[in-house]
Protein 1
Amino acid sequence: MIHVSCGIAILVLMVARLLIRLKVPSPPIVPKPKPMMTGLAHLGHLVIYLLFIALPVIGMVMMYNRGNPWMAFGLVMPYATEGNFDLVDTLKSWHITLANLGYFVIALHAAAALMHHYFWKDNTLLRMMPRKRQGN
Ligand code: HEM
Ligand code: HEM
């Protein structure tokens, strides 16, 4: 169940990053983008957090409600004594819709990062690389 273990790992990473983000401020972008762009970026990041937290949680609830043993990281995970297949069907369609939305948002996100680097020529991308960030 590579899909399941990777999905749960993404959930852990997203929550960990969100907690770190709330505690530790990111280095400033130089030159400073317009306030509207910063607002849009924050909104976009919020959408990414919500999507990639909701998606694996829905996946886990789905597996639980199938009522069969399932594994993550080689461990047997909790499962319902009886399957609830109506719920599983609904969650499955949500899971697939959110996953497709997620891929679209990530493509936009990566394109925005490249725009920062090559078009607006600011330090957004380089800030993520501690060695290259010196001097900004
Ligand atoms: C960010 C994390 C995840 C992404 C991007 C993702 C993406 C997807 C996608 C695109 C599908 C549809 C595959 C198809 O075309 O049938 C799918 C199906 C599914 N996913 Fe995930 N998934 C994630 C996390 C999880 C987690 C954590 C679980 C369970 C613990 C899970 C359980 C499932 C299940 C049960 C299906 C339905 C499989 C089937 O019955 O065909 N997913 N997922
Ligand atoms: C080619 C791939 C990617 C590139 C070039 C990229 C680049 C960046 C950059 C430059 C930032 C900093 C933006 C800022 O602080 O204003 C950022 C932030 C972020 N990225 Fe990506 N990213 C990529 C893929 C991903 C993926 C796959 C995810 C999640 C599934 C993701 C989730 C996030 C999140 C949640 C933030 C906000 C971080 C924070 O809260 O400080 N990114 N990304």
Note: The mean pLDDT is 95.
Protein 2
Amino acid sequence: MAGQDLDKVFAALDSFRIEVPSWGFANTGTRFGKFIQGGAATSIEEKFADAGQVNALTGASPTVALHVLWDLPGGKGDVPEIQRLEKKYGVKSGSINPNLFQDQEYKYGSIANPSAEIRGNALAHLIDSVEIGKALGSADVSLWIADGSNYPGTQSVRRRIEWMQEVLKSTHDALGVGQRMLVEYKPFEPAFYHTDIADWGMALELARYAGPQAKVLVDTGHHYQGTNIEQIVAWLLHLNALGGFHFNDRKYADDDLTLGSIDPYQVYRIFSEILSATEQERSSIAFMIDQSHNLKGKLEAMVQTVVTAQELYAKAALVDREKLTGLQQECRLVEAEETFRSAFWTDVRPLVKEWRIARGLPADPLQQLAESGYVAKVTEERGSKNAKSASSYA
Ligand SMILES: [Mn+2]
């Protein structure tokens, strides 16, 4: 392989960071039940320990997304403990994720609830989350709103838009310098008739209304089948409105499978769109993982995800963009497509391995994880705590 390719891959991997979610290390599962893993993290300290492992193995995930309700049940009072864990395990707090879907009072919505009192409670939780972000020095407060309705005629979609605008604007007003509010969208589930923030257009409009520090978050699993996600990415880049990603894969709906496991070419197409942006545009895009592993081992699945992301990003970095631009301009379709595709079909694994060795990282992170005995060790330590946490759907 040409030295030029090596340089491209090294530069891409040096800049590539992807955030791991704290909830990806805990026993989470499907709506129907979860299969308890003896080695799953049972506390915020264990989540930080596992995140530290993934970063040590891959060199690409120095931050961990936190979930306010699950990871900081004491709110801002838990910040010193989080800071202690950051130092101990060598990973920083990443995006702060408020929870507006678990409390019983959110049965009919949170920021779009007809009750002004409940909307007020949702806003208070959002502002607490902003304050936690400030205290931890993390840039992004990441919002996924589960609000919606299950039956036609049961709610006023239009009034709910106004209520959301009001709450999101007030949240934006509380942001500090350098802080951002990321607005995620999803077409359905848990609501099955209408979802209040159903697609990127709605998320974009709400973000624009809220203010300049609000951006759109694209969760790859939150689209209808066949949606051209890379086109949405191109539009959001054009509009300077792309805040970041929640990466995962799926076959049917929001399946939270490991990235690239079903359709690696789609991830490649998204990364290619991002790598065709300017370095400045790229620098503000947050790459995050949002996955829940019910069958695969938690640690193994997370390392596999980060490694796959690195490989697909390296492939996208190999595209000869100058050549491609010329071919597109001249409408030389087959040559353009082959130029685009040939980078995808290049086996970059030897180059990525070279990069790992050059950076003092394990040559094969998954193999290193297996040989380290870490999973066996934590399974031993955590087994009895996890055995108690078994739960059923009903
Ligand atoms: Mn998500």
Note: The domain at 3-388 is CATH 3.20.20.150 (TIM Barrel).
